[in-house]
Amino acid sequence: MNIRMPWQAMLALFVGLPLWMGCGESRAGGTPQSAGKAAPNWEVYFSPKGGCTEAVVRALEKAKTSVLVQAYSFTSAPIAKALVDAARRGVKVEVLLDKSQRTEKYSSGDFVAHEGIPTRIDAAHTIAHNKVMVIDGATVLTGSFNFTKAAEEHNAENLLVIRDPVLSEKYAANWKVHAAHSEPYSGK
Ligand SMILES: [Zn+2]
User: Fold this and answer.
1) How close is the Cα of 70 to the center of ligand 1, in Å?
2) How far is the CA of 63 from the centre of ligand 1 (A)?
3) What percent of the chain shows pLDDT beyond 70?
4) Which of 40, 50, 148, 162 is deepest in the core (most CB within 10 A)?
């Protein structure tokens, strides 16, 4: 049997559907894509201007006990402020930075160090390229997204927010490996 569809319907099926399912960066406010109908345990965001910074800040605002940070480049004022706010609420915040943050112009690493957040430099590698946060031992934020203004506004990046205690434990264990060979940093 020959089923005939108007060409507009065909177009909607083959072009419209993928567009409709398309990515967060085109949506105002960075609506996350998520895994399915019932309480997904992850969100994903895409830069530029896809809500990565807001997602990090929201996650930090919800932090209750601990935040472990690994950052390569760190210049995002809203993220630095959210870390300091969390520390002031009594959340145990600790930051590891790449050695480039020693020589970079005033960075958010300096800001958080000056605000009293325990901050260390991991100089044991060619680059310490991780961009990770482990929040309350239950949520991991990671991806290519550096905690920077440029990553939010100009770069093509991705950020995953994964609520998973087992995965969080893996990332926290790796954070500790790097913390053990890192040096305290008091800012410049
Ligand atoms: Zn290391």
Assistant:
1) 10
2) 25
3) 80
4) 50
| pLDDT, tens digit, 9 for 90 and up, residues 149-176 | 999 999 999 999 999 999 999 999 999 9
Sequence-distant (≥ 6) Cβ neighbours of residue 142 within 8 angstroms? 130, 131, 132, 133, 159, 160, 162, 171
- CB contact burial 83-121 (16+ within 10 A = b; e otherwise): bbbbbeeebebbbbbbbbbbebeebbbbbbbebebebbb
Q: Is 131 a residue of the active site? A: yes
85-115 residue pLDDT tens: 999 999 999 999 999 999 888 789 999 999 9
The total of structural domains in the chain comes to: 1
CATH number at residue 142: 3.30.870.10
Listed in sequence order, the residues at least 6 apart from 139 whose beta carbon sits closer than 8 Å to its beta carbon are 59, 161, 162, 163, 164, 168
Looking at residue 46, what is its pLDDT?
A: 97
In a domain, 66, yes or no: yes
Domain that holds residue 74: 40-184
